Amino acid sequence: MTTSPPPVSYDPIQGWAGLTDHRRARIEVPTGSRSGPLAGLLADSGVKLLQPVVAPLRVDLLRFDAFVIARIVGPESSAPEVAHRIGLLWERSRPASRRRCLFALSPGGGLELDGPAPHRVTDDGDVAVVFPGTHPVRISARRPLDVVLFSFEEDEILPLELNPRSTVLTSSACAVLRAVHAYLQTVLQGSTDARYEQTAALRALTGEMARALTRTAHPAPASQRALDLAAEILDAEHANPELTPDRIAVRLGVSRSTLARAFASRGTTLADELRHRRTRTAHRLLVADPTLPTRALAMRSGFRSVSSLERAVLAVLGRPLSDLRSHHG
What we know:
37% of the residues lie in helices and 19% in strands. The chain is of the alpha+beta class and 329 residues long.
């Protein structure tokens, strides 16, 4: 039998660190509301409602010790005379809130952020991020109102980090952002059962979503991207004798010297990586069929000549090709 943990309330220093389960809430907010359940729910996260609600809202919330997910949804009507808008102030007066990042996702656009807190917003207003810090920020969203807010402690994404100097936001049409948005919406619709095993699984998945968002907003340096893409080409096409370092550079749209510096930072060269892959392929082919003619072995593993194959085998594997053939024959 699973026992329920004791009630946990917000600690001004540690935040919700003592929360061992997860908490759900759903509030239907009538027009003209500025206080009551909504204000209390927001206050638990250090957020204030800036003006009365002018149209009915539904607010769903899911809280873990280091994560908060909320979805604010307005009425479906798109009549121009209905000004669907909500304004929030994240004061960040609590020490725990200063260690938090916040993503706001609104596929319909309409997000606006203001205030001294470091933040970024896409041109379409469909994605926004607030970075850890001490300054407050005002967050507003307008019709069509359907916003997901995802807040997490910066320690949860280590060794990654979010900082305003290197963050580049992409549109919500990005595949990763669509997947994260779908997950956050789905997890908010779950049951109210907060058993420990469910909390652990949901918390782990939610942490992965935070890291996925961070990677999307903090792209790898150009040199790293070049290395990754070059490695994909090498893995898939090294057995093609026409593949050369120059052709890889052309396909990646970078200079040969740029690619050379990227591989040098890893203590290797593109030519060496290509030769190593071709040699390992030749070795596997020889093990599978020791009777394979040497010329066919060279061509099928990407070498232009038998002599190139023989030199590579000796350099990479430390043994003459003849020794390998006799050993596996």
